Amino acid sequence: IRHGLGNRLHFFTAGMDTRARRWIEVESELRHALARGELQLYYQPIVCVRDGRVRTVEALLRWNSPALGWVSPAEFIPVAEESELIVAIGDWALETACRQVRHWQDTGLPAVRVAVNVSAHQLAGGRLPERVREVLERTGIDPGQLELELTESAMMSDSEHGARQVEAISRMGVSVALDDFGTGYSSLAYLSRFALTKLKIDRSFVDGLSRDPKSSIIVDATLGLARGLGLRVVAEGVETEEQRALLAAAGCDALQGYLFSPPVAPAALGALIDRFAPA
Ligand code: C2E
Ligand code: CA
Ligand code: CA
Ligand code: CA
């Protein structure tokens, strides 16, 4: 017995070791990724239920590391968060996304709004409203063309301070969405405290729609709550026609997912142009 346990312990620590080593490797490569131009933004269309048009795209980080190959955001975002590299990376994402919107506009694409993910550290830093203002000025895009996506954990870290910043940002005319709704806790308190315009229902609920009756109860309750508070609702991770039909019938305003399009490189977005709302 002792022998077996010893083996398992050995296996366990070896496993921890591999993960710890990978984390450190990712972190040390990530430190240079920005300066070396290894990060990119891809854009995923968000489709309006009412008319099937695209008015917003979400900017999502992609990292092709010469040393590690493609690293998924699911892996490198947590590393970036813990090392606080996310502040510089998030700042770059904000500026790059706004520049991209400006570029699309300059090349004659219908006006589009971009949704940019913002981390808890960016909100905690206290300079987010200033940064947003600077970027809007530099790129010359309309504040209405920018939306920030915040998670509950971002709002939770220091909610008084966070609420003031969100308020300042929304006063500029930039909209703020609560991302991954339903996966955190105390969600309901944030809904009234923060100047939000939108809720994004997490993919896990969309995924469960046809299998788990509880998912559809949560989706319906979310929509009721959002309607009462005057918030728009986007559902993410829509992969099937069945999910699309259920979410549309439930009253979602917009849908996002592989059923419509995966996140694509900026140049590929032009191919989806016929789906964009006319200017
Ligand atoms: P998120 O903000 O919830 O973004 C949605 C994720 O779902 C994206 O994963 C997207 O590619 C994926 N997705 C979209 N449609 C579908 C679908 O139909 N099915 C499935 N299975 N997945 C779908 P991605 O690009 O891997 O990003 C993962 C997470 O990394 C994001 O989740 C977000 O939390 C974080 N992230 C990405 N870019 C940024 C960024 O610029 N800043 C910050 N702070 N976080 C970011
Ligand atoms: Ca998001
Ligand atoms: Ca999300
Ligand atoms: Ca999510």
TrEMBL record:
Q: Which domain of life is it from?
A: Bacteria
Annotated EAL domain residues = 23-277
Put simply, this protein is called Response regulator receiver modulated diguanylate cyclase/phosphodiesterase with PAS/PAC sensor(S)
Q: Which organism is it from?
A: Thauera aminoaromatica
